[in-house]
Structure formats: structure tokens, C-alpha cells
Amino acid sequence: MSFRSAVITFPGSNCDRDMAVALEQISGTAPARVWHGDAELPESLDFIALPGGFSYGDYLRSGAMAARSPITKAVVAAAGRGVPVLGICNGFQVLTESGLLPGALMRNASQNFVCRDVPLRVENNQSLFTSGYDSGETIHIPVAHHDGNFFADEDTLDRLEGEGRVAFRYLDSVNGSQRDIAGILNDAGNVLGMMPHPERAIEDAHGGSDGRALFETAIKGLVAA
Amino acid sequence: MKVHIHVSLKPGVLDPQGRAIHHELEALGFSGVNDVRAGKLIELDVADGTSDDDLDQMCRKLLANMVIENYRIEKLENA
């Protein structure tokens, strides 16, 4: 059975090709490439990826415009039906702006764009996306963002922690995120948003391949299902 | 009708931009600046008779992110 995935491209997305290459390389099947103005997703998708970049030039707020584009409505509906959705960097910003994930991603506390490999701790390895890691394992994944400073009110943060929905946490100071949160899951566990870029760490030539397990386990779990 | 939408960060939400501006004002020698918060002003030109409810919905659905921001609607009657 082949793996049916889609990568959504907005005007200003710039990690869509990297994401498509990662999905094709690891699943053996090229993802459908879907444009922001499309009203519908391909049928019976196993996986949807919202890539990094600067959709709509980050106008108003990062991810704000993309979150309201026609295709995002279709992504929200698909997520509601249980289709796994992975949002990386700008994709994470789109997920919070669309309401699929709680909180908001604000300007980095340092005001600086941060672009480097960062150590992350895997906090929850029970999800579709993270079961290829050990709980508490340290992995190294690149970040490249200006607006990665995760904010949510204390009640929301406590709920995320209590429900095991913090997937990844920064091990050093990266962007001022509350409780060093780098990636979170929705309550059903089928939507993951994270600022670091696992698709940029899938082979040794990238300087590390710690991101590979995320795609491998997700794809394996979905094809087997 | 001209309408100004003032979007500001909620109290308690850290404002790195405001902090940087504050720091720079002090570096320029202005003392006595207690705090700086940076927000946005969005100027709308809307049809006369646009309802308050519509303006409110515009703010809630797009112009402000209610997780981190507040908004204030100012109608400029004679503009």
C-alpha cells in the first residue's frame, strides 16, 4: 500500500521542497503538491505537511494569512477527521493561527533571527510522530526562525504538560518560549507543530539525521494501519 | 467611514519589541521612560453603516490574535 501525503505550498513557503524530498525519500512515494488557493485536498490522504517559510510575507502576523486561506480550511477539516498533520516552523505558526493548536508564536525574545542546530529533549514518545525516539532522548535538529517564541496562558501550559502534549522541549535558550516548548500536539494526537526542522536533518550530509525517525515512524505507522 | 483599529499586546505578555525600544530610548539619553509597549494601528475605510458587530468580528477573526492581543475600535466620525 502506498503512502499518500500532501505538502501545502503558500506564497512565500520556502521549505516545501525540502519537506517533499524528505517524504519521498523516506516513504518511496512523492507527495502531492497542493497550492494555497486550491479548495480541496487530494482524496484519502494519510499525511499532510505544512512547511516552513514566510507565507504571505508574514503580513499582519506570521501564519495569519495562510491560516485563513481556502486550503487551510480543508486541512482543518481533515485534521478533524483524524488525518495526521505536521506543521514545521511557519507551518506551526499556521496551526496556532488556525486554532488547530493552542497558543501563539511571537517574536523571539532576543529580537534576533535564530539559525542553528539546537538540542531538543523528546518529552512524549507515545505519539504517531515521536514513537521512534526514546522518552527523554536528546536529539539535534536545526532551527531557523524569527517568530518562535511560544506563548500560551498558564492554564493552557499546565494542560499541555498534564496531558503529555509537549512533544519536544529546547535544552538551551533559543527564543524565549514559555517552558522552553519547541513542539506540541493537539488533544487527539494527530496534529504536531514544531519550530525545529526535522526535514533538514534526515541524512548525514545534512550534518545529522536525527529528524529521520520522526518521518520513518509516522510513515511506518500509517502504512501499517 | 474611517475606523482605526488599535491592536496591543495583552497585559502580562512579554513584549520584546517594546523592551528593545525602551532600551534604545534610554541609550539616546531619554530618562524617565517607565515602560514601552509596541502595538499596531490598522486604518480601515469601510462603508458607512458598517455595524459595530462586523467591526468586532473583523478584529476577532483576523486583525487581532486573541491569544496574545487586545484590540480597540476607534471610529473617526469626521474623517
UniProtKB/TrEMBL annotation, chain A:
It comes from the Bacteria. Its EC number is 6.3.5.3, 3.5.1.2. GO terms for biological process: 'de novo' IMP biosynthetic process. SMART domains: GATase_5 (SM01211). Pfam families: GATase_5. It catalyses: N(2)-formyl-N(1)-(5-phospho-beta-D-ribosyl)glycinamide + L-glutamine + ATP + H2O = 2-formamido-N(1)-(5-O-phospho-beta-D-ribosyl)acetamidine + L-glutamate + ADP + phosphate + H(+); L-glutamine + H2O = L-glutamate + NH4(+). PANTHER family: PHOSPHORIBOSYLFORMYLGLYCINAMIDINE SYNTHASE SUBUNIT PURQ. Part of the FGAM synthase complex composed of 1 PurL, 1 PurQ and 2 PurS subunits. Part of the phosphoribosylformylglycinamidine synthase complex involved in the purines biosynthetic pathway. Catalyzes the ATP-dependent conversion of formylglycinamide ribonucleotide (FGAR) and glutamine to yield formylglycinamidine ribonucleotide (FGAM) and glutamate. The FGAM synthase complex is composed of three subunits. PurQ produces an ammonia molecule by converting glutamine to glutamate. PurL transfers the ammonia molecule to FGAR to form FGAM in an ATP-dependent manner. This is Phosphoribosylformylglycinamidine synthase subunit PurQ. It comes from Pontixanthobacter aquaemixtae.
From TrEMBL, chain B:
The keyword Nucleotidyltransferase does not apply. It is an enzyme of class 6 (ligase). It is found in: Cytoplasm. It catalyses: N(2)-formyl-N(1)-(5-phospho-beta-D-ribosyl)glycinamide + L-glutamine + ATP + H2O = 2-formamido-N(1)-(5-O-phospho-beta-D-ribosyl)acetamidine + L-glutamate + ADP + phosphate + H(+). One of its GO terms (molecular function) is ATP binding. Pathway: Purine metabolism; IMP biosynthesis via de novo pathway; 5-amino-1-(5-phospho-D-ribosyl)imidazole from N(2)-formyl-N(1)-(5-phospho-D-ribosyl)glycinamide: step 1/2. The keyword Transport does not apply. One of its GO terms (cellular component) is cytoplasm. Belongs to the PurS family. This is Phosphoribosylformylglycinamidine synthase subunit PurS. It comes from Pontixanthobacter aquaemixtae. The gene is purS.
